[in-house]
Amino acid sequence: MKKIITILIIVLGSVGGYAWYSPYIAMNNIHNGMIEKDADVIIEHVDFPALRESVKVQFMNQMMKKLNNNSGASAVGALGAMMGAKMADGILDTYVTPSGIRSLMESGKFDKNRAKDTIYTGEYIKYDKFKISISQAEKEDKLSFFMRRDGLIEWKIDDIKLPENIMKR
Q1: What is the pTM of this model?
Q2: Residue 48 burial (C-beta neighbours within 10 Å; 0-12, 13-18, 19+)
């Protein structure tokens, strides 16, 4: 009986440890997928509908903030902003998809050497939410992705925190 309890404790401890460490494994897999330009690895870790919505909301908020900060904004400027938002919607619907990720990886515009120089850090926000911060050594901007637990050990990127100055670029 003592052997069974010991084995059970070891098994439960191993499963619990793996479940706790699983977002770090997912983060590492995503990083390696970027370096190897393996779109399938990245696609497997993304909840595209949730990520698309996250990017759209942030993009619209920044566009509205920019429009509101421009005190000389006219009705024509507001109309232009609305048209720009509609175009951005279409672009996001096209590119924040599995085929969009594949196209990016295959286009040659994605620099795998830059991915090697990227610094990834991760931290738990809650037991089912994990934050990945990504930065380049020469830049101060950080891009943050948020993953949610999908089952016991799977994680999906479902949110992103865009840099505040994305509209200035």
Answers
A1: 0.78
A2: middle
pLDDT digits (tens, 9 = 90+) for 78-90: 666 677 777 777 8
Average pLDDT, integer, range 122-149: 86
Residue 52's identity, in one-letter code, is R
Query: Which residues sit opposite 48 in a β-bridge?
Result: none
For residues 124 and 23, what is the distance between their CA atoms, to the nearest angstrom? 9
Give the C-alpha distances (Å, rounded to integers) separating 102 from 14, 40, 132: 35, 8, 21
Count other C-beta atoms under 10 Å from residue 87's C-beta. Answer: 10
Domain count for the chain: 1
**DSSP summary character for residue 152:** T
Which residues are CB-contacts of 92 (< 8 A; sequence separation ≥ 6)?
A: 52, 55, 56, 59
Domain extent at residue 163: 2-168
Helices (H) and strands (E) in the chain, counts: 6, 4
Pair 20, 127: CB distance under 8 Å: no
Q: Tokens 């020469």 correspond to what residue?
A: 138
How many C-alpha atoms does 7 have within 13 Å on its Cβ side? 4
Distances (CA, A) of 58 to 4, 12, 66, 99, 148: 53, 41, 12, 22, 19
